[in-house]
Amino acid sequence: MDFASTAIALCLALVLATFVVRHHARRMCGKEKRYHPVAETVVHQLINFRRVHHYMTELSCKYKTYRMLDLSRSAVYTADPANVEYVLKTNFTNYGKGSYLYNILSDALGDGIFAVDGQKWRHQRKESSSEFSAKVVRDFSSAVFKTNAVKLACLIYKAATCNQAIDIQDLFMKSTLDSIIKIMLGIELDSMSGTNEEARLKLSRILKITYL
């Protein structure tokens, strides 16, 4: 596609997005319910795709809570701590995933706690609550971090005694990665003992096995 065709396509997309926003705003203005402002549309997300994280951050700083429109529905985004607490804690039961998200998530997560609602969610939470109690997680995490801290200290000591230059930031990152993989997946990545390429290959194999 040449430059002229691309420019025409972008103009048409912006015209369509503007029409959708105005039509939706007119439809909502006569109703008594209060709705969060319409910030942009999914077309604007596509236009800003190369900087989408910065783009969404800018919208969050401007609106705190806002809606993004597409042709069939609107999605609500929020960066307001009070709203997050209301959805995830105060009135959690009123905000289920619904069939739309379940159909997307169930392919990878099945009927796990992150995909289901209602009775299935309560059952999953009850089964996992004992395994993820604060004390269990704290004790296990502490043991993992202490073990990897000892490995890190040994590598630094060895480099110091041999007068060898090391990238300390890289070692810190690898130590953190090893600890997180061990805590989350129960697998020893041991990236501190190998090269970056070896760590990447091992991590890719672990992730492939985990999600198969």
TrEMBL record:
It comes from the Eukaryota. GO terms for molecular function: heme binding; iron ion binding; monooxygenase activity; oxidoreductase activity, acting on paired donors, with incorporation or reduction of molecular oxygen. Keywords: Heme, Iron, Metal-binding, Monooxygenase, Oxidoreductase, Signal. Belongs to the cytochrome P450 family. Residues 1-25 form the signal peptide. PANTHER family: CYTOCHROME P450 (PTHR24296). This is Uncharacterized protein. Its cofactor is heme. The lineage of its organism: Eukaryota, Viridiplantae, Streptophyta, Embryophyta, Tracheophyta. It comes from Rubus argutus (Southern blackberry).
